[in-house]
Amino acid sequence: MFKVLVSDPISDMGIQQLVDASDIVVEKKTGLSEDELVEIIAEYDGLLVRSQTKVTEKIMEAGKNLRVIGRAGVGVDNINLEAATKRGIIVINAPDGNTITTCEHAFAMMMALARHIPQAYAKTIQGTWDRKFLGVELRNKTLGVLGMGRIGSEVAKRAKAFGMEILGYDPFLTEERAEKIGVKVASVDDIVRNADFISVHTPLTPETKHMISRPQFEVMKKGMRIVNCARGGVIDEMALVEAIDQGIVAGAAFDVFEKEPPEADHPFLHNPKIIVTPHLGASTIEAQENVAIDVSEQVLHILRNEPFKNAVNMPPVAPSVMNKLQPYFELGEKIGTFAAQLNNQPVKEILVDYAGDLAEVDTQPLTRYIIKGVLSRHFGSDVNIVNSMHLAKVRDINVVVSKASATKGFTNLVSVTLKAQDGTEHRFAGTLLNGYGARVVQIDKFPVDISPEGHLIFISHNDKPGIIGNVGTLLGKNDVNIAAMQVGRKVIGGEAIMVLTVDKAAPKEVLDDLTKLPEINKAQQIIFE
Ligand SMILES: NC(=O)C1=CN([C@@H]2O[C@H](COP(=O)(O)OP(=O)(O)OC[C@H]3O[C@@H](n4cnc5c(N)ncnc54)[C@H](O)[C@@H]3O)[C@@H](O)[C@H]2O)C=CC1
Ligand SMILES: O=C(O)C(=O)COP(=O)(O)O
Prior knowledge:
seven-stranded parallel beta sheet, binds 2-oxo-3-(phosphonooxy)propanoic acid, binds 1,4-dihydronicotinamide adenine dinucleotide, alpha/beta, 18 helices
């Protein structure tokens, strides 16, 4: 049974599938402090949040069973991603569910700004019939959109319908896409100098922090208006107040703040030219249901060890590529486990080579499985596909990936070479055989055909008559039944290997006795859990 904690107000309807799942217990406890969360988090396998809960390293440290943090929304700046990755906690978000809702909020803010709606409303209900509020039209104005992702693009599309000219900046905005949306590609400087309205739609990163600050305000068109429904800090709040005082900016609309909620004396709350909402961008019935459904579905998959999407602390992979790679994950992990069990030295370098079909796709998710397999010998369940590359890096293990053409007659081939500190090297290759599944087809220089499952005994020996018989007799005497056997050698009478599939693990004394047999150099148990 898995336990999931919902620590922010998330749509009940949206999480219904989690609540209904027979293997999941969902508990809703909102408004907890960091210390309160630290106290209870060890009980839970999953945590669902919006933007209120700050998921700190301290909380993750205490969350010994935590496997997934689901963010019912886009921005994950309230989650310490580095700490999650280090601990192998998968962080997922729901990037698509609130796009339109947030876009509509930004648009509503822009219109409210243009027509002073909040200010006029406040006066009217106070009993003052003030008709001095003189607005501006959006038509024929230039809108600058910084961040042309999901929300920015939707804002641009709607602005087009209002007869605005749109300048867009985004490091990933191509001319082709811009043309499709009806946006002119511009630089930040172009936008800052020419826009009548600016709306920001980027995440908060070191690069976007204060991307609109004093130097930008200084060159803006006098009387421009600015909207932030993205993240507090993208626009420098103090520089904005100055720009309003100097008459450069005619008005600003903010849904997000550098510190949320803002202090009571925050200048935005006392400036008639600034309109504010309390981070309501994503707050519609539709968006809240959408994001909760999306995130619940992925949390279910993760807890049940099924394929999932939208992991924030793993690079994204196209579904078509994922479908192609999926069948290889188990093979990759098993080759890694096999290699690690045969290697008795600290690993310095892991060379991974993909040939055949696999050489044509982005194989990085598969590499994560292989590295997980290699590291699991020492890290056990502490390593997973989220943190495997990170753990290799912090242990100074160099991972080198190549794509070769030598498939050795197979349609696909995954080769893993472990280079140890003392200079020894072990090479393993595996493939997926149609109808037969995962096979290990090479160990060091020896061609083999092994199904990497259950319990194996790996023996290296000198190729002399009678050895196989001796091994069989010794194992038989000790009640270790041999189910299959593979022998590999390069030359008659030379170095050779034997890999036995046995029905159960051989006791250590039996392995020791095997190494005492003539011509046997090494006998080692290999276990695939
Ligand atoms: N106010 C609210 O309640 C909500 C706020 N948001 C926030 O809105 C923002 C945008 O969300 P989405 O459009 O869904 O994300 P997205 O990832 O689709 O778009 C963000 C875009 O910003 C671009 N970008 C990154 N650095 C940039 C830079 N230096 N200059 C220009 N562009 C840059 C990226 O290339 C990307 O295209 C996020 O910060 C998100 O957290 C999202 C939903 C609700
Ligand atoms: O999805 C986002 O990035 C948001 O900012 C929405 O935040 P919320 O879920 O409303 O706390």
